[in-house]
Structure formats: structure tokens, C-alpha cells
Amino acid sequence: MTAQVIPETVTPEAVQGAARMLEVRVRRGEVFQTFAVARRPNQTVLDVVTEIQREQDPTLAYRFACRVGMCGSCGMTVNGRPRWTCRTRVAEAATGDALVLEPLRNLPVVKDLAVDMEPFFEKWRRAHGYFEPGEAPPEDFAPVRPDEPERRKADAGIECINCGVCYAACDVVAWNPDYLGPAALNRAWTLVNDVRDRGQEARLAAVAGDAGCHSCHSHMSCTEHCPKALSPTFAIAGLKRETGRAALRRLWRKA
Ligand code: SF4
Ligand code: SF4
Ligand code: FES
């Protein structure tokens, strides 16, 4: 083995990091390709993928934008677990010195680690995950106090960054590709609690169907994996209650 030459300017941490190598297995279609990457202090999984793409194989496809946990575009499966990779340190995700990287589950693969998010966002549309101002919205801003119960319920789910990690973690999506999934339903719940919105009846009908909130098995995988510590399971439980109340209201109107 040839001796490693280390420049005098590197820190002791870097020396320690450089002495260890990561074995990174990357799924590329039906096969895995193995790369060796030096371990470095505070290295993230996204750093590793970027180093492979820049230093070893420029054809490797993956997606990222902000690198600070805001854009939601860097989701991948890391050692079997869906994660945001820009905020996941190698030290917490690797098994020893081994990383296995795969695309997010439950979405079509475009190439290598990049998935097509269109089906994910199509379900947001199907769940009416957009604000409905109504025919004649008031001209003034609606006063909504931060301590109002509805505002608090909406707040609990509003920080979603659309990363798809919960969607990849959900077994019901895997069994039933039509299922709206945790992120779209969580978004619908924030809007159900938006007192300014005028599209509630249609939204509740949209999430009450066969592929909607009542298909959720409440096994909390989405909640366990969400990198923003949101609880789509809680939001879906709220939708189950509200869709039930809406059904009763319809019955009373008919009676
Ligand atoms: S709680 Fe519901 S939405 Fe969340 S992972 Fe389980 S089945 Fe999917
Ligand atoms: S609910 Fe959490 S895991 Fe799901 S898309 Fe939003 S931020 Fe990502
Ligand atoms: S790159 Fe934006 S959230 Fe990871």
C-alpha cells in the first residue's frame, strides 16, 4: 500500500477523516455501483453524493437546491430509510463506513437518485391542497389571531417543505398508488383550518373518497420520518373527524 501524503495545513480532524474511507453503494437502475469517498468531519450525505458526481462520475443524477433544509428537493433513501440528505450527517446514517443510496420509494425514477415528483404534486391538486378565496373575497385582510384554535391547528402542519420523505415512508402508498398520501392530506388539513378559505365542502369531499384519509392505517411511519417533525398522522386523524361531521351535515340537510 502506498503511503498517504498529507499537506501540513490540514487540521487533525481532517487527518483523522482522511484516514477512513466510506464505501458508497449507489443504485443506478437495476444495479448498484460502488464508490469510495473519504470520510470528513460533519460531512452530510448530500456532500458525499456531490463529491462522487464532481470528482468521480459526472453522469450521476440526483437533485438538490438549497442545501439548508428549505427546498425539499434532496430526498433519497439512505441505508433503507427515507431522509433529507442535506441535513443528514454521514455519522448518523452510515452503518460503520457503509452507505447505500437509493431513490425515494413510491415515485417513478427519472435517473439514478432523481425521482419524478409529478404524481406527488398531482395528489396535492386532487386533495384541493390550494387556497380557495371564493367568488367574492373580502378586500381587507382577514384578522386571524395566532392563538385562535384553528390557526394553531394549521400551524402544526404548515412548515411542510414538500420533500416527499413521508410519502416514501408510507406503506399504504406502496400498496395503493392511488392513495393521496400523508403530505397532500396534511396540506388539506392546514387549509381545512384556514378560516378564510371558501372551498371546504369540495375539499372535504375530495379527501373523503376511497383513496383519501380513511385509507390511512395510522401506523405513523410518515410522522416518524418527517424531517420537519410534523405529524401527518395527526392531520389525517383531524380529516377523518371532519369528513365524518360533513357526512352527518349532508344527512341532516336531506332529512
Ligand atoms: S399514518 Fe397513514 S399516511 Fe402516515 S405512513 Fe401510516 S398509513 Fe401512511
Ligand atoms: S410532511 Fe414532512 S416529510 Fe412529508 S413532505 Fe412535508 S416536510 Fe416532507
Ligand atoms: S437541498 Fe433543499 S432541503 Fe435539502
Automatic annotation (TrEMBL):
Assembly notes: Part of an enzyme complex containing four subunits: a flavoprotein, an iron-sulfur, cytochrome b-556, and a hydrophobic anchor protein.
Signal peptide, first to last residue: none
Domain of life: Bacteria
Keyword set includes Metal-binding: yes
Protein name stated in the entry: Succinate dehydrogenase iron-sulfur subunit
Domain 4Fe-4S ferredoxin-type: 150-180
Pfam families documented for this protein: Fer2_3, Fer4_17
Cofactor binding description: Binds 1 [4Fe-4S] cluster.
Cross-referenced PANTHER family: SUCCINATE DEHYDROGENASE [UBIQUINONE] IRON-SULFUR SUBUNIT, MITOCHONDRIAL, SUCCINATE DEHYDROGENASE IRON-SULFUR PROTEIN
Swiss-Prot/TrEMBL cofactor(s): [4Fe-4S] cluster; [3Fe-4S] cluster; [2Fe-2S] cluster
UniProt similarity note: Belongs to the succinate dehydrogenase/fumarate reductase iron-sulfur protein family.
Catalytic activity: a quinone + succinate = fumarate + a quinol
Residue ranges annotated for the 2Fe-2S ferredoxin-type domain, each copy included: 22-107
EC number(s) stated in the UniProt entry for this protein: 1.3.5.1
Keywords: 2Fe-2S, 3Fe-4S, 4Fe-4S, Iron, Iron-sulfur, Metal-binding, Oxidoreductase
Pathway: Carbohydrate metabolism; tricarboxylic acid cycle; fumarate from succinate (bacterial route): step 1/1
PROSITE patterns per the UniProt record, alphabetical: 2FE2S_FER_1, 2FE2S_FER_2, 4FE4S_FER_2
Entry keyword annotation includes Hydrolase: no
SUPFAM superfamilies per the UniProt record, alphabetical: 2Fe-2S ferredoxin-like (SSF54292), alpha-helical ferredoxin (SSF46548)
NCBIfam families found in the cross-reference section: dhsB
